Automatic annotation (TrEMBL):
Residues 121-162 form the Cation-transporting P-type ATPase N-terminal domain. This is Calcium-transporting ATPase. Its EC number is 7.2.2.10. Residues 94-104 have a biased composition (Polar residues). NCBIfam families: ATPase-IIB_Ca, ATPase_P-type. One of its GO terms (molecular function) is ATP hydrolysis activity.
């Protein structure tokens, strides 16, 4: 194929080789991208990435321009790749490709060898358009990661010690006649560890599986390419470097490349660069020609096409230069891949577990010291055999180790794992896909939510609901307002069907202003009809024109009125314009844009749209009326767009421009046609959700690109701005200019940030965090990734969000609804509460069991604790597995929103919880120790029956304490939401049935005997009194407890000042 026919004279004179290569030098750490073994092409992937990292015209020139790329990539810019290409023979050197010498002076490029596999070399060198899949961790790998938890390591040590001592007791030389079950304690801890590891690994595995499913919802799509000179459709995953892709209006560009041919191509690169301006694209040949002659500003010459951006206007073809991980979009996606760190809750729990272990070891050493001292005192008078003395010593060791085993919180990691597993499954059903587990617990203590407006607070469904046409004579109302017609007008035509009152000429002018002056286009939908594709505002206007002005298909309207020149939307001018040629030979400029901008360029207005198009001068009073109308619409949360026109006798107005005019030359002396009001309705339930956030002491701030008036109106409708006027409203540019100190001082009162950019959002997040706030942020675009990653919790949109935004986020809102954030807030608080409830219960049982074991072992002549190993096993099962299942699955309740978020540094166990833990422990110890030490003197029960009664009372106190632990505050309703937690009731039933079964048929295995009815009644009554004791404890003021604690000489490092509690101690 002949690729030497391209005019190479457009390139500047080739400089030296060293100069050519300088723009292509590798970045540090990327040298491997520039080295490819057996490369049949002139370029490496690294050299091609220099074209767009960042956009670089010197790099394009160094690669030989479009001709050099064509030769070096062994393709053809007109016919594309050959469909017969397989393996390539021969090579093309860098000098051959970039020298600018026609290929006819070189030996012809070798033809491809025939093989069964297509594009082998091309795929090997430049890769395929697929990101390398992140290898999913195997279940065993996830289990091993879960096993690295410090608490589980502590449990493993305890299991080893318990199992070793249990086996010694079971098979020891002086084992008694009771059941040989001492080893079961250690075996049970092993089982608990296995359950924790399996459930934790399963949670992570399911989370990853759900996220992979979400990404697969964006199904494979077809793109148009040119191969062997013919257009064809291929999968987006089959695009290769060297392909020539066809650009059409509305396309999302999947790969990087340079423009070969095109007409009026404009791209929206906001998703990749954050810049809202449309970027006009110029062919690579024209760019290098203009650049070499100095005829144009290089900053405004752009032949580069970025992956992930959208074509808003024009058509053409481009040469693919990078795919997959080498493309700009792919590199961003790979850079966002990171392993999540340890969650804040896990950090606190590890600290707590270490503290509990230290206390347990201290208690065990103290018990060993006391019992060993007694052993040494009796040793001179002990005439037993040496083996018996050794056995007595081991009994002391076993009793000491028992306290340590009892102290180890083996149920704690199980409770955390079950809580996260249960919560993430429920959150997925409520449209919150959790990507990072730590975000669940962090969300519970978020203090500020920075939300986008469009699509999150609103429905993102634009509809024209009204308008004022001409000199305010015609008021169009499709959604009646409470406002009266335009003030000052004595005769106003109020209509919902404008076609019935407007003149045919004016209707045609409105129809053309909407149908021709737009970048949207029409395509077939899935229902056999047609749908408009473009921005929401554009499609709303087109839908209105079709409904009210009998607009024909866009292709017909545009065919009947040829477009002479298009001025795309410019964020500085805040308008767009199109020039058409009329039948009488004149030219008409159609303008659409922000009312304040368009009105400033108007000096005339259509007098009466019902009679025709008759312009009259626009006087100051008329301007004020129009401005008042725009303000009235804005106060109703409506977006406004103005329409205007101007006729010209000749085009262009300046002959020096050779057929093209500058927009600044023609924006003036316009005729005002009217203003159209567009509504994006607020989502149902958003106002209630914002009020709930306020009740929960969570501030909601709106960040939007809309103007201040519309933003304020939407914020008031959502409840973000309150009537007392305390909320601050600012524009992005103004906010950006603030000093860092001033920014920190005002962000707390800032409610609305209008006309803002993604960088403004990131600055807002950082300013809030500098004040100690925990911030949640919503985002949907690629350019929102920095703000999403900077936030404590990032929410991306599951429907409208880009892949980059989802990858950068912690939670994906699968319905794009603000109300779903409230669900995440509720579950976050429920997770933290569930863990605290379990802690409150388990530490109570731990304290009681440790003290009871210590005192009874010391007081016993046989140095044997009141609860034997099997009974402690059952107690451990209650306070670990059963309690974890019962308390970890409590769903959120409305009362969760009645308190403020906890500070980041708040103690894991606060004063109110300590009050309950200590109070319940004192009650249980008074009952059990009194029964153990004093009871035999009064009750006269046989020893086995007496110990069975103590065991029964102890267990039922724990069962009723489980009800008390359902609240961690001072409110008395411990049964709130109980009917929603069926698992809690099931666990309670299993514990009661299990205890009754043990007492009736446990016998020798558990070291118990049957109890009579009176003894059962006493057990239940004392257990029930735990609830009454809990009520008394909650009624005791925290302030008194805090004052008492302040009198105790607690080290400063253990104190934690908390503005929401009188005092707290952190473990």
């Amino acid at each position: 194929m002949d690729i030497g026919s391209r005019d190479l004279e457009l390139l500047p004179e080739a400089p030296s080789t060293a100069h050519d290569r300088s723009p292509l030098e590798p970045n540090p750490g990327e040298e491997h991208l520039f080295e490819v073994e057996n490369n049949p092409f002139a370029f490496s992937p690294g050299q091609l990435t220099k074209l767009l990292d960042p956009k670089s015209l010197p790099a394009l020139q160094a690669l030989g321009g479009l001709s050099g790329l064509e030769r070096g990539l062994r393709t053809n810019c007109r016919s594309g790749l050959s469909i017969d290409e397989t393996l390539l023979s021969g090579t093309v050197s860098f000098q051959d490709a970039t020298s600018g010498t026609p290929t006819g002076s070189h030996p012809p490029l070798p033809l491809p060898e025939q093989n069964n596999t297509h594009y082998v070399d091309r795929k090997r060198v430049f890769g395929e358009h697929k990101l390398p899949e992140r290898k999913p961790k195997s279940f065993l790998k996830l289990a091993w990661i879960a096993l690295q938890d410090p608490v589980l390591i502590l449990l493993c040590v305890a299991a080893f010690v318990s199992l070793a001592l249990g086996l010694y007791q079971t098979i020891g030389p002086l084992h008694g006649s009771s059941a040989r079950v001492e080893w079961v304690e250690g075996a049970t801890i092993v089982v608990v560890i296995m359950i924790i590891v399996v459930v934790g690994a399963l949670t992570e595995w399911e989370k990853e599986k759900h996220f992979r499913k979400l990404n697969k919802k964006k199904e494979d799509r077809l793109v148009k390419v040119i191969r062997s000179g013919k257009p064809s459709s291929i999968s987006v995953y089959d695009i290769l470097v060297g392909d020539v892709l066809i650009l059409e209006q509305g396309n999302v560009i999947p790969v990087d490349g340079v423009l070969v041919e095109g007409h009026a191509v404009s791209c929206d690169e906001a998703s990749a660069t954050g810049e809202s301006d449309l970027v006009k694209k110029t062919t690579a040949d024209a760019v290098l020609r203009a650049w070499s002659t100095g005829d144009a500003n290089p900053d405004k010459l752009d032949p580069f096409l970025l992956s992930g951006t959208k074509v808003l206007d024009g058509f053409g073809t481009f040469l693919v230069t990078a795919v997959g991980p080498y493309s700009s979009h792919g590199r961003i996606m790979l850079a966002l891949r990171a392993e999540p760190g340890m969650t804040p809750l896990q950090t606190k729990l590890n600290t707590l577990a270490a503290s509990i272990a230290k206390l347990g070891v201290a208690a065990g050493l103290l018990l060993f010291a006391v019992l060993f001292s007694k052993f040494l005192v009796r040793l001179p008078n002990n005439s037993s055999l040496p083996v018996a003395k050794a056995h007595d010593f081991f009994k002391i060791l076993i009793s000491s180790m028992a306290i340590i085993v009892v102290a180890v919180p083996e149920g704690l990691p199980l409770a955390v794992t079950l809580t996260l597993f249960f919560a993430t499954r429920k959150m997925t059903k409520e449209s919150n896909l959790v990507r990072h587990l730590q975000s669940c617990e962090t969300m519970g203590n978020v203090t500020t939510i920075c939300s986008d407006k469009t699509g999150t607070l609103t429905e993102n469904v634009m509809t024209v609901v009204g308008g004022t046409l001409g000199d305010g004579i015609v008021e169009v109302d499709h959604n009646p307002f409470s406002d009266p017609p335009t003030p000052g007008k004595t005769q106003v035509v109020w209509t919902s069907e404008p076609s019935t009152v407007l003149s045919p000429d004016f209707q045609e002018l409105i129809r053309l202003s909407i149908a021709i002056n737009t970048t949207a286009f029409e395509s077939d939908d899935n229902k056999g009809g047609s749908a408009f594709v473009g921005t929401k505002t554009e499609t709303a206007l087109l839908d209105w024109a079709r409904r009210c002005f009998a607009m024909r298909p866009l292709s017909v309207e545009r065919a009947n009125h040829g477009v002479v020149q298009l001025f795309p939307f410019d964020s500085r001018q805040k308008c767009m314009a199109t020039v058409i040629r009329l039948r009488d030979g004149r030219y008409r400029l159609l303008v659409k844009g922000a009312p304040e901008v368009v009105l400033a360029h108007c000096n005339r207005v259509v007098k009466d749209p019902t009679t025709g198009i008759t312009p009259i001068p626009l006087y100051p009073a008329g301007r004020d009326d129009i401005s008042g109308t725009v303000a009235r619409y804005a106060s109703r949360s409506l977006r406004t767009l103005a329409l205007a026109y101007r006729d010209f006798e000749i085009w262009p107005v300046n002959e020096d421009h050779q057929g093209q005019a500058e927009v600044s030359e023609v924006l003036g002396n316009l005729v005002w046609l009217g203003v159209v009001a567009i509504q994006d309705p607020v989502r149902k339930g958003v106002r209630a959700a914002v009020e709930t956030c306020r009740r929960a002491s969570v501030a909601v701030k709106m960040v939007t690109g809309d103007n201040v008036e519309t933003a304020m109106a939407i914020a008031e409708e959502c409840g973000i701005l309150v009537e007392d006027g305390s909320g601050l409203v600012m524009e992005g540019p103004e906010f950006r200019r603030l000093t860092e100190r001033l920014m920190r001082s005002i962000v707390s009162n800032l409610c609305v940030l209008a006309r803002s950019s993604p960088e403004d959002k990131r600055l807002l997040v950082k300013a809030l965090q500098s004040r100690g706030e925990l911030v949640a942020v919503t985002g949907d675009g690629t350019n929102d990734a920095p703000a999403l990653m900077a936030a404590d919790v990032g929410f991306s949109m599951g429907i409208t969000g880009t892949e980059v935004a989802k990858e950068a986020s912690d939670i994906v809102l699968m319905d794009d609804n603000f109300s779903s954030i409230l669900n995440a807030l509720a579950w976050g608080r429920a997770i933290n509460d569930s863990v605290k409830k379990f802690l409150q219960f388990q530490i109570t049982v731990n304290i009681t069991a440790m003290v009871l074991t210590f005192v009874s072992a010391v007081a016993s002549a046989e140095e044997r604790p009141v609860l034997n190993a099997v009974q402690l096993l059952w107690v451990n099962l209650i306070m670990d597995a059963f309690a974890a299942l019962a308390l970890a699955t409590d769903p959120p309740t409305e009362s969760l929103f009645d308190r403020a978020p906890e500070p980041r540094t708040a103690a894991l166990i606060d004063l109110t919880m300590w009050k309950m833990i200590v109070g319940q422990s004192i009650y249980q110890l008074i009952v059990t120790l009194s029964w153990y030490l004093v009871g035999p003197q009064y009750l006269q029960y046989p020893q086995l029956e007496h110990q069975t009664l103590i065991f029964n009372v102890f267990v039922f106190m724990q069962i009723f304490t489980l009800f008390n632990s359902r609240r961690i505050d001072n409110k008395l309703n411990i049964f709130e939401g109980l009917h929603k937690n069926k698992l809690f009731m099931l666990m309670m039933t299993m514990m009661v049935v299990g205890q009754v079964t043990i007492i009736f048929i446990g016998g020798a295995a558990f070291g118990v005997t049957r109890l009579n009815g009176r003894q059962w009644a006493v057990s239940l009554l004392i257990g029930f009194l735990s609830i009454l004791v809990g009520i008394l404890i909650r009624m005791f003021p925290d302030s008194c407890i805090g004052a008492m604690i302040n009198l105790i000489p607690i080290p400063a490092r253990l104190r934690r000042n908390d503005s929401r509690a009188p005092a707290a101690v952190e473990l």
